[in-house]
Write a structure and sequence with these properties.
There is one protein chain. It contains 14 helices and 14 strands. It has three domains: 203 residues, P-loop containing nucleotide triphosphate hydrolases (Rossmann fold, 3-Layer(aba) Sandwich); 66 residues, Orthogonal Bundle (Helicase, Ruva Protein, domain 3); 35 residues. By secondary structure, the protein is α/β, with parallel strands linked by helices. Strands 1-5-8-11-4-12 form a six-stranded mixed sheet, sandwiched between helices.
Length: 344
């Protein structure tokens, strides 16, 4: 067997710059230290003032103090790693490491060696023992991004980590004990992945002890301008402001790439602008017709009524309610939280 090459793509240890600046009272501000007890921590809430984002923060705060394995679901670029770091910083493990690994960024032959490490002589070129990311995360948090891209063999081995808190390095015969909290994330529907046989059901249930759905930016438009202000402060050497036309363009764009796309658009606009103002032309966004606020409210009301009716017709059975609505159970849970119907 050939030796896996050392890989850094997909790995993110403790040095990380979040794209989510701090905010207070619904408005972006300079970084605000929020001490927790007398341990010296300075905690910042990620930017966001929409009800949907506040619900994400509420649930993340709720689970942070526990040891529960947490599953974050949402589209690419919505801020899953930001929330994972938020949980880590507010957990009893905050002094421990935060080790992030992107399962989709590593070739299949490298993923297992990066996760589990290997013993000397495990394969050609393995001249010394190398601990894996699971081992390095002991005492802290292991963040598995794009967990659905994990190979079937890696899924089976990782299940043992969650069940027994131990594993074997590649080429090893002696179990390695670890004390690690796992936060997983995916941009795919885990229910569908399990149904198609692409993801182990037993691993799904172990990972999904506590789930948090992170809505796309287009569903939390109240967050666009606070995020934009924070990014401009982060990226610009001098004070830069958005023109009214640029503000409108940002507000109306659909943001298929979510918060990551917003940051990239503003970084480009800063390069294109000649002065202290960013105009709509500097953003390079296609003009889109704005949905009138009243229409958006009506659509939200209709969606809430449809969920209420489905739950009522299904006598509270979420599986049947989801089928009536033509959505997955995880998507139904997200809508129930969104509309405050969790006890329906």
């Amino acid at each position: 067997m050939n030796a896996p090459h050392a890989a850094t793509d997909g790995l993110d240890h403790q040095h990380h710059t979040s794209w989510a600046p701090a905010m207070t009272s619904g408005q972006p501000t300079s970084r605000r230290p929020v001490p927790s007890g007398h341990d010296g921590r300075h905690l910042d809430d990620p930017v966001g003032r929409s009800n949907a984002w506040r619900e994400v923060i509420r649930r993340a705060t709720q689970v942070a103090a526990s040891e529960a394995t947490t599953c974050l679901q949402g589209e690419s670029g919505t801020g899953k790693e930001v929330i994972a770091r938020f949980i880590h910083q507010r957990s009893p493990r905050w002094r421990g490491p935060f080790i992030a690994i992107n399962c989709a960024a590593l070739p299949e032959q490298l993923l297992e060696s990066e996760l589990f490490g290997f013993e000397r002589g495990a394969f050609t070129g393995a001249q010394q023992l190398k601990p894996g990311q699971i081992e390095l995360a002991s005492g802290g948090v292991l963040f598995l991004d794009e967990v659905t891209e994990m190979t079937p063999a890696a899924q089976a081995k990782f299940l043992r980590v969650l069940q027994e808190r131990e594993f074997l390095r590649l080429g090893g015969t002696r179990p390695v004990r670890v004390d690690v909290r796992v936060i997983a994330a995916t941009n795919r529907d885990l229910d569908e992945a399990v149904a198609r046989g692409e993801f182990r059901a037993d691993l799904y249930y172990r990972l999904n002890v506590f789930d948090i759905h992170i809505p796309p930016l287009r569903e939390r438009r109240d967050d666009i301008l606070p995020l934009a202000s924070g990014f401009l402060r982060e990226l610009a050497a001098a004070t830069t402001e958005l023109s009214p036309e640029a503000t409108e363009a940002l507000r109306c764009h659909e943001w298929p790439g979510n918060v990551r796309e917003l940051r990239n658009v503003l970084e480009r606009a800063l390069i294109m602008s000649d002065g202290p103002f960013i105009d709509a032309a500097h953003l390079g966004l296609r003009a889109r017709k704005e949905v009138p606020p009243s229409t958006a409210t009506d659509l939200g009301t209709l969606e809430k009524k449809a969920v209420e009716r489905a739950m009522r017709d299904a006598d509270g059975n979420k599986v049947w309610a989801a089928k009536r609505l033509g959505i997955s159970r995880m998507q139904l849970y997200g809508r129930l939280r969104k509309f405050g119907l969790e006890n329906a």
